Amino acid sequence: MSGVGFLRRVWLTRLSGPATERPLLRQIFQRRPARMLELGLGTLKRTERLLRIAASLGPVHYVGLDPFEARSPGDPAGVTLKEAHRRLHGLGKVQ
């Protein structure tokens, strides 16, 4: 059995919100990825949640691409490069 129990797994993949993340969570549980690439980090809420779950299943090499400080005024809010590295460093190998 993985680091996530059966009931928690059902909750995450079928009932938890936001519903748009459920297919990603199902793929993480089915494929147990060792490498993840994310384009656009936003506020890091989804990133941290997905990395915690993936890291509980095995080691994870994560690469996140984001404009960080180079965002234009019309772009959605996001985190700085330093904040992203600080928050994600403990969750896996981060580049």
What does this entry look like structurally?
The protein is of the alpha/beta class and 95 residues long. The protein has one domain. It is built from four helices and three strands. Helix 3 links the parallel strand 1 and strand 2. The model has no long low-confidence stretch (mean pLDDT 88).
Order of helices and strands: HHEHEHE
Average pLDDT figure: 88
Low confidence ranges: none
Question: What spatial order of strands do you see in the largest sheet?
Answer: 1-2-3
The number of helices is: 4
Q: Share of helix among residues?
A: 40-55%
Keywords:
alpha/beta, 95 residues, three-stranded parallel sheet
Summary, kept brief:
The chain has four helices and three strands, in the order ααβαβαβ. The protein has helices at 6-15, 22-31, 45-57, 81-88, and strands spanning 35-39, 61-65, 93-94.
What does the secondary structure layout of this molecule look like, with pairings?
Elements: H1 6-15, H2 22-31, E1 35-39, H3 45-57, E2 61-65, H4 81-88, E3 93-94
Parallel strand pairs: 1-2, 2-3
Helix pairs in contact: 1-2, 2-3
